[in-house]
Amino acid sequence: MMTKPMLKSMENFLTFFTGVHQQHLGDNLGCVALYGSIANSAYIDGVSDIDFVVFTKVALSDADMKQLYAALQEHPFYRKLDGMYLLAADAGKMNEALVRYYYLDRGQLEFGYWDVNAVTWWSLVHGGIVLFGTLPDIEISWEQVIKTMQYNIDKYWLPKVNKPWNFYSDEDFEFAMATVCRIYVTIREARIVPKVEAMQIVAKLHPQYAALISQAIALREQTIKPRNYYSRVMRMREAMVVLKKIIGDCQNLLAEQV
Fold it and tell me: GO: which molecular function terms (predicted)?
């Protein structure tokens, strides 16, 4: 987890981050806000991103964004940044209702569409941290969050779960276990929790999955624990079976809510 020395360095970076936006955007800056692990005390150094949304009053020009990005690159933590630059008037809208916008993907500047969905808006409203300005009015319902969970299951995880090699590497295995467990907990408990907490909840509810999940938690937290599996191939095969079962549970819960 985020240690005290890391916490201090992160505080320094967030001060720098906010100051850069104030300096370069001036009166056009409406709000700088954080969400996700950095906002709910679940940040893990070396694993977690710094999720953010910057709201402006008018769209950023190419020149403004390039100057801003160059300033952010002066701090090494810029590579942790994962967030969007949106108009305040677009707060609460989904990607399909937006024109392309600037965003950072692990510090890489891009222009297009990124992580704008119901979970993002819900997380901002119900657990976000405002570093500057005032969060715009955002209309978001829990029903929209559930629809996002349904979409993720149907369009992403169902096709993926039938291909075991998707879960071979440590990174892919941990990502799959953490994300699917969080989808399950979101649907079951009507709340969004950090990924490690979600895996702990599923392991407690389903002890038969605990050994597999404990390895995913260890990978995410970057802790040293005894291996529960003799090979990645064995882990991959069991992961596919367990993920299918959890996804099936998600589908059953979603069907009950229709």
Answer: transferase activity
